[in-house]
Hints:
Elements: H1 2-27, E1 31-36, E2 39-43, H2 45-60, H3 65-79, H4 106-109, H5 112-124, H6 134-142, H7 154-164, E3 172-175, H8 186-197, E4 202-203, E5 206-208, H9 212-224, H10 226-229, E6 233-236, E7 239-242, E8 251-252, E9 260-263
Antiparallel strand pairs: 1-2, 1-3, 4-5, 5-9, 6-7, 6-9, 7-8
Helix pairs in contact: 2-3, 2-5, 2-9, 3-6, 3-7
Amino acid sequence: MVAITLTVMVTLCVGCYAVFLHFRPYLHGSNCEVNTPLGKEPLDLEQAANAATISAVAYRKDLPERAVVIAYATAMQESHLRNLPGGDRDSVGIFQQRPSQGWGAVDQLRDPVYASGRFFDALKKVKDYLDRDLYDAAQRVQRSADGTAYAQHEDEGKILAQAYTGHIPAAVRCWFSPDKRTAPRRSEAMRELRRSFGRLPSKGDAVLVGGQRSGWAVASWAVSHAQPYGLVEVTFAGRRWTADDGHSGWSADPKAPKDRVLIR
């Protein structure tokens, strides 16, 4: 009798564990998290994709991390890092730029790559912007009603910049449930990656990188765009992220190369 009871209990436990494993990918929902020594910052999938794009455009323009911090603080104040279809008067996009003020057409400003490029081009024209208070530099670009509001997002901007510029490795993780999976569009993802970062040499499923920092910037971009482009795996520098276990973040992978980011 005892043996039968134990057998039944073991069977039930095995069954329950199997059910847990089946539903586990659904339990965490969909989200992203940035984790650096400065702190943690939760982002939804749209915010993470936009954050990755902003940093990638700064990389293409060879801008320092401080410029990225300023851009993040500005975008958080203006749109919460979302690509808004409208706003105050004719403002649109992640930086709430206005076509009537010469930033570009509505369709252009709804393109995060274009909008980020316009923001950085304007920021570079601000004399000594790297030495100014963040709110001062941002306000000289945006000319909003209350420029001091940008200052409240500086700490968040620093956390995001450390991660997305590749300063801190494996700092970005994203996850989404199986019902949020999309059809693989890797070739489109690679075109968008190159449009954001500029021309990066690639071969097959690999993006060749010049060092750890640029590699982690590319890897973080790929993880943050995995859901819309149907990407399932990103590996770099001894680490691997998979869509199947995105909530766990980056796991050890001794075979992951240091000179290229593998995106599948």
